[in-house]
Model the fold of this input.
Amino acid sequence: MALAPRAVLVHRTTEYAELLARHSTHGQAAFFLASRGRSVDEIAARHHRTAAALAEVAAAVPLTWRQSRVERADLDRFLFGPEDVVVVVGQDGLVANTAKYLSGQPVIGIDTDPGRNPGVLVRHQVPDAAKLLASALHKGAGGEELTMVEAVADDTQRLLALNEIYLGPPGHQTARYRIGSGESAEAQASSGVLVGTGTGATGWLRSLWQERGSALRLPSPDERRLLWFVREAWPSPATGTSLVSGELRGGARLELTVESDRLVAFGDGMEQDAVELVWGQTVRVGVSATALRLLG
Done:
């Protein structure tokens, strides 16, 4: 017997809830912020808007469906199923945080605070939820297939991201590695390497692209093309700076071989879910066969 569809509501703990967890009561949280010249009222108002939005979206789930909720911090421990429809209730970044754990499930982005969020990925308002859920499983539901980036290590560790993957030192040390393959490879010392998608071209990737005055064209979100940049490559007798940017199309891969004790790779700012790489390991980064299916 086929399982009934399941709506998975993804949300994030609000700033107000975090304040209450730290200070126990509203009054103590208000006093703490007031001592720093800030008011708790706006933060509390955003919390209540988010809670109301989450409740309204939950009420819009069809009665014949199953329903589940997962907080951002628990995404790496949550098992998504093929029958799921994922509803991200929050900010644009929460869609990116969720994407790496999916395998083609349709995603609906609901903006809980219109005007405050750019709305690049959370494209819909709360009242749209019922209609979107009702049509989510139809073949004609449409939507976009947003390109994702993946890193695959030689020990089969795999990392997915919607915006970008960063490879570098776990702290503020220097990353040492060999970039490229064969005779064209170059030893480098830098602050790390960033490989980004068209979705990420509105964030960190764009910042590096603009800082360099790069002539490379930024990719669009659904284009199967990535850009990569080396951050602060350091020239020395043993390290070079000739391979500091480029693009990856289709099946092309950027190859890095670790030449320091430890490097990490993480996607979309989720440092707690990083892939760890040690001396001599090789990792290849490129366009993923998995895409994010974003409705609307």
Notes: Residues 41-59 form the longest helix (19 residues). The CA atoms of residues 6 and 66 lie 4 Å apart.
